[in-house]
Amino acid sequence: MSCPALPEGFDLTDPDLHQHRVPLPELARLRQTAPVCWIPQPHGVAGFDDDGYWAVTRHADVKEVSTRPEIFSSHANTAIIRFNEHIQRDQIDVQKLIMLNMDPPEHTRVRQIVQRGFTPRAIRALEDALRDRATRIVAGARESGSGDFVTDVACELPLQAIAELIGIPQQDRSKIFDWSNKMVAYDDPELAITEEIGAESAMELISYSMNLAADRKACPAKDIVSRLVAAEDEGNLGSDEFGFFVLLLAVAGNETTRNAISHGMHAFLTHPDQWELFKAERPATAADEIVRWATPVMSFQRTATQDTELGGQRIEAGQRVGVFYSSANNDPEVFDRPETFDITRDPNPHLGFGGGGPHFCLGKSLAELEIRLIFNAIADTLPDIRLTGEPRRLRSAWLNGIKELRVTYT
């Protein structure tokens, strides 16, 4: 079984491909001719005991998979569509302790607890500190004259936001950044991060977080961590659950927002009319278009729990189903001129925060706040920022990452 709409051997999750581009032309061809299509893989290449997956590329079908967890499981094989081929099954299975890889009712229980930290009130309480931080980040970049936008600007605010949210001391925050980088960079040989180093970093972050939770249980403070772990009943997280929650935040809340900001800056600088519009009007719709355009998570997967049908295609129980957000966010059935970066786009029902359902991004409001604050600060302080080189992309099977973006700030 193969996909006639693609060249022989073409794999949408190939990290070598993503190091150079997102396969938007191929995804468009699939949407038009084979919206639910079997993608064969060499046995075990993605870390799973199978020979491929179904690629789901239309907006409507991605939403359907996302909103039917009883049919399409996040837990069975996790949500990560491709691991390193040398990974062991027990290394995959331990990741099922992360909320991203849970199904209801366990997912429901954990999410009801952790969403206490993401209420509108909790996010508003962070705004002044994050605005001040954004201003200082951009001022520091201006003083340097030129540099790498990713390390100088994009990476800092998401890290600080997560650290502020869960009360990580300032002196420890660089550790979180380092650990989260290593956890997602094992596919990129330029970064010299092996899968073993990535796993060690994950365990260090979990251990650090468990110790933080234990400290708050012993000595509660007026912070989110204490609210999540300090009480005694089932409505709170154990120290181990909190550790895995912070692990998720370090990737879902740090890496993804950083890449949205990096892609957003590149989009503005390659669409100067949109940058001029943003500087003049600051439209409230800009953050959503940045996320749609960037789609920091290109794809996740689910596993069919039973024989089912999707988009007219029969899917067997146990088969993996890849949902391609990069394709859904460029579906012309939903978006007018999706190939156009338009910060006034409204409505904008993008799936950059997921396709709805139980796994819709818990940190959506926080991410949008960070994007708004950092680009307001850039427009105020660095209005003449310019590109001096092409972005260098991260080699990854599923994360749409930029690891370097050279610019002149003044």
From TrEMBL:
What molecular functions are annotated in GO for this chain? cholest-4-en-3-one 26-monooxygenase activity; heme binding; iron ion binding; steroid hydroxylase activity
Kindly state which keywords UniProt assigns to this record, in alphabetical order: Heme, Iron, Metal-binding, Monooxygenase, Oxidoreductase
Top-rank taxon: Bacteria
Supply the enzyme class, top level: oxidoreductase
One GO-annotated biological process of the protein: cholesterol catabolic process
Q: Which E.C. number(s) belong to this protein?
A: 1.14.15.29
Family assignment from sequence similarity? Belongs to the cytochrome P450 family.
- Give the protein's recorded name: Cholest-4-en-3-one 26-monooxygenase
Origin species: Streptomyces iranensis
